Amino acid sequence: PIGIFGTAWAHFRLREMAKLERGAPIDWGGFVAFTVFILSLLLALTVAAYGVSEAATIAGLLVLSAAGLSAFVFLERRHPHPLLDLKLLRIREFTGGLLAQMLNAIAFGAVLLLLSLYFQLVLDKKPLEAGLLIIPTDIATLAAGPLSGRLSDKYGHLPFTTTGLALTSLSLFLFSTTDASTPYPLLVVYMMLLGAGLGFFASPNISSIMGSVPPVRRGIASGFRATFFNVGYTISLNLAILITTFTVPYALVTQIIRSGCSGVSAADCILFAQGLKTTYLWLAGLNTLAILPSMLRGRRTNAQKPTPSLIADP
Fold first, then answer.
1. Could you give the CA distance from residue 183 to residue 312 in angstroms, rounded to a whole number?
2. Which CATH superfamily is domain 90-312 in?
3. pTM (two decimals)
4. pLDDT tens for residues 197-253?
5. Fewest CB within 10 angstroms: 4, 76, 286, 304, which?
6. Domain boundary assignment for the chain
7. What is the CA radius of gyration of the chain?
């Protein structure tokens, strides 16, 4: 029912601002090139984590991924109706917001999975209990999101996106200090820091991205934003497993996930918990990198106008 309400509300309330490009051909070349890029990258991360392929195979997949990305950029710059309008990347605020969003998505995309594994496999909770124990993260996100959105409209996006990223990095670092003896009230504090950080960052960052482009290009800008977010989120899951296997053999990871710590030795279970802590540290570092593009995009004043060349482009 929520989805039906949202669909009906959007149909009756939203108004089309852009000029529709009816009859525009589909950019099949760009579609194929992008598919090769993301598929090869995810396969490389996956087989590297599994340890089932030689280094040459992984390197070959990474080279193929880079070639796919290069071909995608080449084709998009020359197609009259590209999948993604790369001209929008000339806008510094737009590009900075996209890069910050993608790095943030890579960092937090796998966190709920890691928390679930921690509660179920380290603290021996049932799946339903684990889901309920993670709820403080969502509560903090729901509380911080609207607040940061309203304040960013008044004071600008930069203080809130930077604060949100800093809180997220801090929470990920704090998660790296947890173990089986960490009290749940302390975990609640860490989860609420994570949720607040995500809420403070997301709303003003999306507003900054969408507000930096001409109104007639906001549909394409929204597609751009969604693509960067989904790429980052998808990479996060594969990357988290790969980082975990730096500490824990993949065979042990799959055994623990399949049967829990009851089927392995106490030493192996401790090793798995250490792998989770290492993964959190890596993700905290990645999220901290997002602060740089977020800050370098600068501030946009209310009087700033879109780039004329971008308005003229169809």
1. 59
2. MFS general substrate transporter like domains (1.20.1250.20)
3. 0.81
4. 999 999 899 988 988 888 878 888 888 899 889 989 988 988 888 888 888 887 787
5. 4
6. 16-83, 90-312
7. 21
